[in-house]
Each structure stands twice: as structure tokens, then as C-alpha cells.
Design goal:
By secondary structure, the protein is α/β, with parallel strands linked by helices. The protein has two domains: about 1-10 and about 70-205, HAD superfamily/HAD-like (Rossmann fold), CATH 3.40.50.1000; about 15-65, no CATH class. The protein has helices at about 15-30, 40-45, 50-60, 60-70, 75-85, 100-120, 135-145, 155-165, 190-205; strands at about 1-5, 90-95, 125-130, 150, 165-170, 185. Helix 8 links the parallel strand 4 and strand 5. Helix 7 crosses helix 8. The model has no long low-confidence stretch (mean pLDDT about 95).
């Protein structure tokens, strides 16, 4: 099978990071408190502006996440196991600055690749998406690589893929609890991901 894998929210727990590190950051810098702990993005979590969100994306606090934050438990082991079983792994992800030209874009791409390497997450292909147009870019990537199942957490991306006849493993988070459909499978751990893929690959054979 061709398996697409998102990064933020699937390989790294961005929701946990945004609350743990974003809460003191936005309180100290702007006086903002958490207004919706179950939201997907810091804009909805703290009620900040686009400009303030982008400043957070370039602040050393966020770079701690990009460079040093750990991968989800057992993610690397499961991905390695899937590759050894013959599955193809395609990382399909959008992130702030990652499609930009210039220094910020270069640094965002470099740190992502280094983070994956240091977490021993081995993949066959990498497709980078425009953060503002991620749903359509991910749909394009799924078509390009003939993806059989995409592991994703963002509701907009999940529903776009499902509505275009793609199977999606929804990596469980409070903000995607309402994502439901015949081709959506929910996983709370990477062990769950493996069991879902194992069942799907058997059926495909």
C-alpha cells in the first residue's frame, strides 16, 4: 500500500505543544488566555491575530517544537515495520513558511528533514504543502502518489480527502472528534494505526 503521513498532529503532538508552550507565550506577550483548548490552531485557542500567530511561528518557543520536540510514541517503529512489510511511506505535510522562498522557507524545510532524520522516521517520498492551501495540496499529493490511505488530523484535510474517495486514518484529537464517514478510521495511537493498515492491506490482497 501507498501510505500518506502528515507531520504536525500525527508524528508530533502539536496540540500538546500549543497548550504547554503557547499558554505562557501568549499570556506574557499579549495578555491572552486560552479561550478554546480543543481548537486546532493557536488563532482559535488564544484568539490571536494572523500577525501574532506568525510571530509565534518565528519565535524561539515554536522553534523548540520544530527542532527538539519528540515524535509520537512508537511512530518511528511502526513506520519502519510498515516499510519492511513492503508498504511505501510518503510524508505529506504543510507547515508555516515551508513553501516560501528565502531564508525562512529554507530553514523550515531543513529543520523538518532534520527532525524526521533524528527521530529515525524513514520515508520514501516527501511532499510539502502550502499551509494556506493544505487541503487541496494534500489531495494533489494523494493523486500523484496513488495514496491508499492518508494519516491526518486536521478536520478540513480529512473531510476533503474523504469527499474525494480517499481512505483516511484520523489521528485522534479533540478538534477532529466530529470527523466521521465510511472511509474514516480513528486511531488514538500508532499501534492503532498499524492494526488499521494491517486489516486494510489484507482486504486489498
Amino acid at each position: 500500500m501507498n501510505i500518506g503521513i502528515d507531520v504536525d498532529g500525527v508524528l508530533a503532538n502539536v496540540a500538546e505543544f500549543q497548550l504547554e508552550y503557547g499558554t505562557p507565550y501568549f499570556k506574557k506577550k499579549y495578555g491572552y488566555d486560552v479561550i478554546n483548548p480543543n481548537a486546532f490552531d493557536v488563532k482559535e485557542i488564544f484568539g490571536c491575530t494572523d500577525k501574532e500567530r506568525n510571530k509565534f511561528g518565528w519565535d524561539k518557543t515554536f522553534w523548540h517544537y520544530i527542532i527538539r520536540y519528540p515524535a509520537m510514541e512508537n511512530a518511528a517503529n511502526i513506520i519502519d515495520k510498515l516499510r519492511k512489510e513492503g508498504h511505501r511511506i510518503v510524508i505529506i505535510t504543510g507547515r508555516v513558511f515551508i513553501k516560501q522562498s528565502g531564508f525562512k522557507g529554507w530553514l523550515s524545510r531543513l529543520t523538518l528533514k532534520r527532525w524526521l532524520k533524528r527521530r529515525k522516521i524513514i520515508y520514501d517520498n516527501l511532499f510539502l504543502c502550502d499551509e494556506k492551501n493544505a487541503a487541496q495540496d494534500k489531495l494533489l499529493a494523494c493523486k500523484k502518489y496513488s495514496i491508499d490511505v492518508m494519516i491526518e488530523d486536521k478536520p478540513e484535510n480529512i473531510m476533503t480527502l474523504m469527499n474525494n474517495a480517499y481512505s483516511v486514518i484520523c489521528y485522534d484529537a479533540p478538534y477532529n472528534s466530529k470527523c466521521e464517514g465510511n472511509s474514516i478510521y480513528r486511531a488514538k495511537t500508532w499501534d492503532d494505526v498499524y492494526e488499521i493498515i494491517k486489516k486494510k492491506s489484507v482486504k486489498k490482497m
